[in-house]
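Protocol step 4 of 6: record predicted structures for both targets in the notebook before any analysis. Target 1:
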Amino acid sequence: MREKRKNNLTLKLLSLGLAFLIWLIVVNVSNPDIEMSVTVPIEVRNADVLTSADKTYSLDEKNVRISYKIRTQFRSRVSASDFSAYIDLEDYSITGAVPVYTSVLNGKNNLVGSVSASPMVVHVDTEDIQRKRFDMESGTFSAVTEGGAADGYAAGEIETETDYIYVQGPVSEIGKISRVGIEVRITEATENVSGEATPVFYDANGNIITDIDERVTLSRETIAYTVPIYNIKAMSITADVMGEPAEGYEFNEVECSPSFINVYGPDEILDEYNTINIPEYELDITGASQNITRSVDISEYIPEGLSLAEPGSEITVVARIRRRPVVTVTTESTESVDEGEPAETDENDSTSETPESSESILQSSEAASEQSGPHMTESSPEGERNSESSHGTSGADESPLESRQDSRSER
């Protein structure tokens, strides 16, 4: 029984192999036609018909499917590269419908037949071409940096080989572009950074346009740039004042807050300056009887060629005013000094007597003392007796020195 089943399986396998062999023989002998297809891009010919009229175009279809018939035994010899599909813009009409033409390449014409394209007609949309200039002067062309220089360094303004660029394309696409620029990364840079960058497009919100139409072209594909990297230097701030305060008051000092500011620029300019001075016309104290406070934009007084290293250029300058010390001398030649009261100040300002003011008072007292002559001392009974005794022994014209000399002689 088992041998019978085994024999039946063998017969079945033999039958299957024989049937396949017969099919191959029939196919090779008869070699029937089969229908095949490939997909190819559409080529545009004579495009200058529109571009010469300042027009651009777009197709509603970019690819077509080409169908053809071929003998079975030759089908492996033909591929998509053996076909082409194209349109001729000389056929363009006001309707925009243009027929699709096909051709067989590489000498395969004798292998294929019944070649046809689908679709057989494509629609061509035309639009005016716009050429627009973007430049730095108007702010439509820019060069910016990403990241920051290393500590102690600052990046200067990017220098580019050009300050403008032209963009050309369909009016609808150019209208989407508000600005063109390049972006340069300078993270932790300690020396000048140079290279070339590809321009990018920005919309009205400052976002990069990533899906720009391929018909948009630039007058320059890349832009060369250099980013100068400068040293940072801290400079002190000083200020002058003009005018005289009110009667009875005097100018004391000027305070600047902050008193130092960081700037950067070429080394040859940095080495020339250590101080930034605010001119006197910014701080007029004429007729002042209290402290004068002003906010000054320090960027206006930074030496040419230098720039602020940090944002914020407002400096607070305070001219401190105080009462002038007054010196009074009594008729008994006893001096008394009225140090005066401090000048009225703002709520946030306070003044106190300084060592300089005390010294000034002392000097004034000494001057008054010199003008009034020797001080007189109070007399006591004992002093009067001594005086009388002295006059009695020495006489009216005898000096104390002569009296002492006579006394020594007598002894």
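Target 2:
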Amino acid sequence: MKSMQTISLDSLPGRLPPRTAVSHKGDFGSVGILGGAPGMAGAVLLTGRAALHCGAGRVYVGALDERLAVDPVCPELMIVAAEALSALPRPACLVVGPGLGVSNSARRALASALDVDHTLLLDADALNLIAADAALLTQLRARAAATILTPHPGEAARLLGQETGAIQADRETAVQRLVEQTGACVVLKGHATLVLQPGREIWCNSSGNPAMAAPGMGDVLAGMTAALIAQGMSVEHAAVLGVWLHGQAGDEAVAAGLGRVGLAASEVSLFARRILSRII
């Protein structure tokens, strides 16, 4: 069994550097988000807003629902055609999966994204599509650019051909098997989220609380992590900081009186912005 390191503020392996007086948005990278099929556009908006709140210089939303023209809450998000995401200004991280769906058009979009040479973060339906399609898994394993997967236990179970209960019964083995299967950095979400980069030790998160068992939390985590990658952090360091920051934001939201019931994912990214600014 691999050694395990607890993720806490004091053990974070990397942080963002302070911004200089002559900084401009191009210094802080680009995040693209591919997903948002009809009826699920909220997922890509949550991901995009989280990326903005965590410092990405530019955020592009490529929704499969072409009716999405602007985000009235965050008009800073640039709504583009999904095909345009392959040409993101560098440095960049492309998130694929929030609200993507499992249609034929979603599969084609994922297959195209797997060929992009940007860092790729795969979440939600991107993982479900890969679990059901050996050709997509082969394409994933052949990628030269860095890749990170962020499955919850159900998605992990589908990828490994197991029941969710088996994943939860031995999460350490599950995260190792996922890394072996995909060749990617894996974030196995849930209580005490695990992070494993190939060839490295397992990281186990210490932050977070039951109020975060709510819709959209994974979308927010994806956006936060992608923003850290776009700003220059390695995939492993961004994953470790991202999961701690996400959980800590949930903890501080509850401490601020938002309660252990009804905490919204959109509220968590606002607390994450405060924490990230504080620890730089």
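Step 5 preliminary note on target 2. The beta strands are 4-7, 30-35, 58-63, 78-80, 92-96, 119-122, 147-149, 185-188, 194-196, 202-205. The chain has a mean pLDDT of 97.
Proceed to step 6 after PI sign-off.
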